[in-house]
Design brief:
mainly alpha, globular, 0% strand
């Protein structure tokens, strides 16, 4: 029974599109990180919240696009668009608040360790996303879903 459910689930175009969108955006993010850092750490595939592109946005865009391609303009589509915008707003907001709190922590460290030279590396906040990262995630989710559904 469980095996049949999984077989049915993974044979559906929306499931395939959402998984490919999420995995491909994470892989692009991994490649960009390798290029920037000039080294490889496989934990980059699953750790950290942020970076180019936004996998959360790609995932949710794929879901909303899949619903539209199957249902058309419906209440389910409107609900999925609402959920997509909630997730996008969240990943944008978390970037703002983590950056703000990181600046406060950096200032506090500076107050206690200011001996004329830097004794503490500034915190590298890799949480949340910029608008460009969200747009890139949106485009990946849209393109992959349209491709999976044979629309392009």
């Amino acid at each position: 029974m469980v095996l049949e459910f999984l077989k049915e689930l993974f044979s559906q175009l929306p499931t395939i599109a959402v998984i490919i969108s999420g995995v491909s955006s994470q892989f692009v993010k991994f490649l960009i990180k390798i290029f920037k850092e000039r080294r490889v750490k496989f934990e980059w595939l699953y750790r950290g919240y942020g970076g180019m592109p936004s996998s959360h946005t790609a995932f949710m865009t794929s879901m909303a696009t899949s619903v539209y391609l199957i249902e058309g303009m419906s209440i389910l589509f409107l609900f999925s668009i609402g959920m997509m915008f909630i997730v996008i707003q969240y990943v944008l907001d978390i970037k703002f608040f983590f950056d703000l709190s990181g600046r406060y922590v950096d200032d506090m460290v500076g107050i206690f360790t200011d001996f004329g030279q830097s004794t503490q590396k500034k915190f590298d906040n890799i949480a949340g996303h910029t608008v460009n990262q969200v747009i890139a995630g949106f485009l990946i989710g849209l393109f992959v879903t349209l491709k999976v559904f044979g629309q392009i």
